[in-house]
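> tool_call: predict_assembly(chains=two)
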Amino acid sequence: MKLYENPPVDLWNKLIKRPLFNCEDLHDTVQKVFTDVEQFGNQAVIKYTNKFDGVQLNEFEVSKEVIRASEEKVSPQLKQAISLAKTNITKFHRSQLNENDDQKVETSIGVKCWLEKHPIEKVGIYIPGGTAPLFSSILMLAIPAKLAGCKEIIICSPPNKDGVLSDVLLYTSKICKVDRVFKIGGIQAIAAFGIGTESVPKVHKVFGPGNQYVTAAKQYLQNYQIPIDLPAGPSEVLILADDSATPEFVASDLLAQAEHGTDSQVILVSTSKELINKVLKEVELQIPSLSRKHIIKKSIKFGRAIWFEDVNQAIDFSNAYAPEHLILVTQNSDEVSLKIKNAGSVFIGNYSPESVGDYASGTNHTLPTNGSAVQYSGVTVDSFKKSITFQTLSPMGLVEIGPYVEKLALAEGLDAHKNAVSIRLKQLNKTI
Amino acid sequence: MKLYENPPVDLWNKLIKRPLFNCEDLHDTVQKVFTDVEQFGNQAVIKYTNKFDGVQLNEFEVSKEVIRASEEKVSPQLKQAISLAKTNITKFHRSQLNENDDQKVETSIGVKCWLEKHPIEKVGIYIPGGTAPLFSSILMLAIPAKLAGCKEIIICSPPNKDGVLSDVLLYTSKICKVDRVFKIGGIQAIAAFGIGTESVPKVHKVFGPGNQYVTAAKQYLQNYQIPIDLPAGPSEVLILADDSATPEFVASDLLAQAEHGTDSQVILVSTSKELINKVLKEVELQIPSLSRKHIIKKSIKFGRAIWFEDVNQAIDFSNAYAPEHLILVTQNSDEVSLKIKNAGSVFIGNYSPESVGDYASGTNHTLPTNGSAVQYSGVTVDSFKKSITFQTLSPMGLVEIGPYVEKLALAEGLDAHKNAVSIRLKQLNKTI
């Protein structure tokens, strides 16, 4: 890790920079796949599954039987762990359901306004494949989708070389009440979500992690007016710690982040040079025992350890970096946490490793990366809803505000807007 | 308007289609302006303001003096109307501030999670120019931004031929406590928002209506990871009415929508052929007296009047169309409104013309168009906020869920994630 001491503010822009993540060069590939899926539907999906995943499939949907059968193939211990995670994620996300909805507000006498949140009917969830499928992302996306009331929850995930999906993925889909699961991956999966084919229904919003191809395809969905959960980037952690932090723990959290990929971002910010030194030593001690050390060694090299004399500078730096994950281990961490303005998810104290949030504390692990925590939220129940506003005016209500609306409409040169009010007021004056 | 009777469901896709709104052909122009603003900052803005707006400006920011001076130049009647609108918009949007935030949830013993909403610090609001500036959009965007707690609210609006902005626009900015106002329009304004120049600060999210150039530029902001309020399209209304509706009123609402532009969408859906006939006659009667009849005649030609025998089919059609504005005037409109699943804003009853929502009922007029009400919300206070989740585990809390997290992490092949838990549990077991 690279060391910095009291970096001046004008150096921060360099220190908060992430590696460029450009999808422009994938644009043509993505466009081609989307055009083909639009034109040839399933046939295009078959073609690209063969081309990109090296599997020949003619039927993509996983049958109810196969999904049911997955139950026996997952170990009881793992089922128990998934169940605990499901319980906690459900508890926290249920608390996001807002009873305040639909409260009617009388803005003027006889003018009632209210807002209702309604579920997005059909949502697509993409789950990457590979040796270890991220079934935890199903928990993080299907649970809030169900709580929101989505009618149809559909998963696409790339088949392995044998043309199947892992049992734990299918089992998790089952207990999360996912409606349909398709063995489709990459760009063609996102295209199927956005356009729909003979087998795959077109969805209204697309969620889930993925590699650069999936990310580029999700961006391309904008052209189909289909929103996505978040702009994706490499995962990252910033740890803000002082002498109250246990160096071994801090090191293990940096390494947990570093194992995600060679482009993972790890940053340690501290007011204690002693802690920084101890942590750097611990990092070296722990690496050898870790199975993904080959990845870790690459990513940790680009890590940064930054010493600030003043804790408020350290906090300002963290807010400027706007980390996806922020681990906070300081004397008065509650006080410090009140000053956090930009972050995806915050982990407070020595016993709150980031990995608990990835799986089972209850918070969502679908979080803004690449500094976008400045303006984006992680996934919540509201990510699966949209709101509708309502208003109803009594005759009295229109008499109250109508004359003002007439003036405002005229001032904007819209006299048909004015007329819609005038014609009603005229009739009311007659009847009064 | 074109008439349809009981159109079969398989015809609906044709009937709910909007005119294609493609920005792809503007892509090169937009890209050029953004690249220039990135490279030359203010100089590029000066160049394009000259080129596109035909005005030579070297200073873009409107001075506090000029803004203050606008106050005397707006009529007391208009000020009074703006003040009423401001009051109602504030009342309704304040009700969206959710006291439930920050409630801590104990998902497992010793595991506390909570969610905090924080304001997006800097937001940009674009206000189109032209003969009649849409100052109402300032009310609709600056008021919720202030309520959300945004630190810096910045307006860009194109200067007129004399290089100034209208007094009512400046006055409205002033009473809405907008921080800075710039005389910049079109693509170069959106580029300045997204990139920042020597004068214009880079913002974190961009809001506001605009022509196709502004829309294309707002879409392009995705490349800078800057979100926008909504994908824009032509404005539209669907009126769902039966014999309980007053034909004159319905006609006036169709015409109010039609005056927006030649591409405005107006649809009348009814279970009463008699009402449809009366409304169509009324439309012809009212047009001649309207100042924007030249626009209205063009857009109304593409309007649709659709008769359904069954009211539930009419409702299903409305949900399939997902109108920006839905006017509901039926016998049991409260009951019908419960079946509305997709719409931007709903106006219930004979005395709730759509124009009250454009200005003064209190609801927001920045709404999803082009069918995107299926998955997008209109602007709310939350559009100016993002959420951060927090969690803190006591030693007991980690003992509770740690062993499960270890299993889940291993199942995903992430043993450094497991290790971050194990290393803590080991230490706790020692100390226990």
